[in-house]
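Lab notebook, page 48
Experiment: co-folding of the full assembly
Goal: obtain a model of how the components sit together before planning crosslinking
Operator: M.T.
Materials (sequences as entered):
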Amino acid sequence: MSKFAKKKDGELPAVSTASLPDIVFMLLFFFMTVTVMKDSSLKVRNTLPVASEIKKLEKKDRVITIYVGAPDAQYEKMFGTEPKIQLNDKFSSPTDVGDYILMERAKKSQELQNVLTTSLKVDKDANMGIISDIKLELRKVNALKVNYTTGSGDAFNNLK
Amino acid sequence: MARRLEAPEVNAGSMADIAFLLLIFFLVTTSIETDVGLDRMLPRKELIKVPPVIAERNILPVLINGEDQLMVDGDRVELNELKGLTIAFLDNGGASRESDNYCAYCQGNRDMKSSDNPDRAIVSLMSSRQTTYGVYIAVQNELMLAYNSLRDRESQRRYKTDFTFLEAAYSSSETPNILKSEIKEKMRSIQKLYPIKLSEAARQ
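Observation: model returned without errors.
Model output:
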């Protein structure tokens, strides 16, 4: 009769899964907001160095990315272990950089063409020779705004 | 008959599966990108017929060799000394009180053998082709740190805020436009006091 009659022993109430969709949706939205679509698969090793005096890169549509690093293990046989430049999806030589920049620039809308930034994503073990070659090519096509993309952290960690 | 009035409940049990499917799709096709870094402007490609004459005292040569060793102004130094040396050089203000180049806001040693004033002081960064990129970035970072700390000091003195804070406020989308022009004005004045004059060259 009483309202607080005990349930029968041994019968555990089932855990409600009604809120599971909500939790998963929350995760989904988190990933949707913090990530961006991959536009090219990385073929080079790309451990970025770290720095502390960093600035945030502008909107993604104003950025042209150049990857530099030693080829991945699966490409090592074909391309060796020296750092290589990756433009879009293929390995390239420094002389291709100028054409690539011009091509990418032509794809952007008119008003963005003057405010483009070139983001250099370079492996921290690469050498400066290849970077100076790239910089020379960038200067030739007047792409002067450069961002050395890094992680954030203490720059002294790069020395190790 | 009354039973028909209450609508049957939609089974939401499969909702979680659908959401998981979407979640996994986004996990696979996207990546978290690093979108921060050191901003630099490359010099224009122009043929300079006559190189400008710059007194040697106004140049701070920073060399990184192929073994990632650092040399500043002729002495072999460690990376953690670089910031202090750069600040001492930039903030020296060696020009005499009577000359036009006198630097009123400098707090350096006023050494006649070092730079005249921050506007004339040039840091010349030279790297070898064998230099490791990580070390190069670390050096660039230390140089930026030197400039930023001087700018911060001057900004503190004049406007009671850090320069880096002004920069962040300027690029933030939450700052109203009216404030932005004021911030820009302040940033300009600080940048004028300590302009970043960094020359880069690669040596074979």
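Interpretation: The beta strands of chain A are 36-37, 50-51, 55-56, 63-69, 84-87, 90-92, 117-122, 145-149, 151-152.
Next step: discuss with group before ordering constructs.
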